[in-house]
Amino acid sequence: MSNAPHAPARRGIVDLPIRVERLHAYEAWRPIVPVPFEEIVGAEAYTEYWKKLDGVVNLLGQCQVTANQLRQQIATVHGAGARVPGEGASDAEVAAN
User: Fold this and answer.
1) What's the pLDDT score for residue 56?
2) 3-state SS of the chain: helix, strand, coil percent to 5?
3) Running DSSP on this structure, what letter comes out for residue 76?
4) Are 1 and 13 in contact (CB under 8 A)?
5) One domain for residues 46 and 80
6) Alpha-carbon gap, residue 75 to 6, rounded angstroms
């Protein structure tokens, strides 16, 4: 198991050995069978899909930057009630509200 900063062992996940065993059982349940998507749908359609997906991911990143800027502006005007990612509230808490 990893000792990386966000690794489960480092975060103190207490039932980690049980979870690891469950993963091993799942992996042994059925052999992995790769699906050749590109062969099935064709190289052109497959490439087009990934280009579109990359564009969406890029656009979502741009939207998040804008959302963070807007939150900061709202917090400045509205006061301490508006939570901004990285400033006292976790990103998950901000996203939930």
Assistant:
1) 98
2) 65, 0, 35
3) H
4) no
5) yes
6) 29
Structure tokens at 51: 């280009």
SS3 (DSSP) at 89: strand
Residues in Cβ contact with 56 at an 8 Å cutoff, skipping those fewer than 6 apart: none
Q: 81 and 49, same structural domain?
A: yes
* Mean pLDDT, all residues of the chain: 87
The sign of the torsion formed by the CA atoms of 46, 52, 56, 62 equals positive
Question: Domain residues for 62?
Answer: 37-96
> Which SS3 state, helix, strand or coil, does residue 85 take?
strand
47 lies in the same domain as 77: yes
Q: Which residues sit opposite 85 in a β-bridge?
A: 89
pLDDT at 92: 58
Cα angle for residues 53, 56, 62 (degrees, 5° grid): 145
